[in-house]
Design brief:
2 helices; single chain; mainly beta; elongated
Length: 158
C-alpha cells in the first residue's frame, strides 16, 4: 500500500458544520442566557461571582434550569475558563393533527413535520384540548443539542 492510498479516504456524509454548542468565557455569561451544565442545555436563573483568592481565579457559580426537563442544575467554574453555550432555536408551527402521541405540524413555508412528540403532563393535555375546540393552534418547538420539544402554544379562533 503506497502513502497515497493510505490517505485516500471516502466520506459518506458531510454536514453544513453547524455545531450544537459554541464556547463562551464564563465571565461573559448572563442571567436568562443559556449554558451547558452536566451535558444538558440550561437557562441561567442565578449567577454569582466570588472574589479571587490569594493565588486563585475568580469563580462563577451558575444555577440553571434544564430547558427540556425543568431540572435545576449547578456548576462552579473559573471566570476565565470557557463554557459551552447551546445553539437554541425556537420555531413556530401550525398544528394539523395529533397522531398516536406525535404532532403533525406545518411550518410557515408549508413543509410538514411529524416527528415531535406531544408533551407529557399539563401542557400536552392543554394542546390536545385546544386543538379540539379551536380553529388554529400554533405550537412553539424549541430545539437544542439534537433534542426537540414543544415548549408553548397559542390558540386562535378566526
Amino acid at each position: 500500500m503506497s502513502d497515497d492510498e493510505q490517505h485516500n479516504q471516502q466520506f459518506e456524509q458531510a454536514s453544513a458544520g453547524a455545531s450544537l454548542t459554541f464556547p463562551m468565557q464564563c465571565s461573559a455569561l448572563r442571567k436568562n442566557g443559556h449554558v451547558v451544565i452536566k451535558g444538558r442545555p440550561c437557562k441561567i436563573v442565578e449567577m454569582s461571582t466570588s472574589k479571587t483568592g490569594k493565588h486563585g481565579h475568580a469563580k462563577v457559580h451558575l444555577v440553571g434550569v434544564d430547558i427540556f426537563t425543568d431540572k435545576k442544575m449547578e456548576d462552579i467554574s473559573p471566570s476565565t475558563h470557557n463554557m459551552d453555550v447551546p445553539n437554541v432555536n425556537r420555531t413556530e408551527y401550525q398544528l394539523l393533527g395529533v397522531d398516536e402521541g406525535f404532532l403533525n405540524l406545518m411550518n410557515a413555508d408549508g413543509g410538514t413535520k411529524d416527528d415531535v412528540k406531544l408533551p407529557d403532563g399539563k401542557l400536552g393535555e392543554e394542546i390536545q384540548a385546544g386543538y379540539e375546540v379551536a380553529d388554529t393552534v400554533m405550537v412553539t418547538v424549541t430545539a437544542a443539542m439534537g433534542e426537540e420539544q414543544v415548549t408553548s402554544f397559542k390558540v386562535s379562533n378566526q
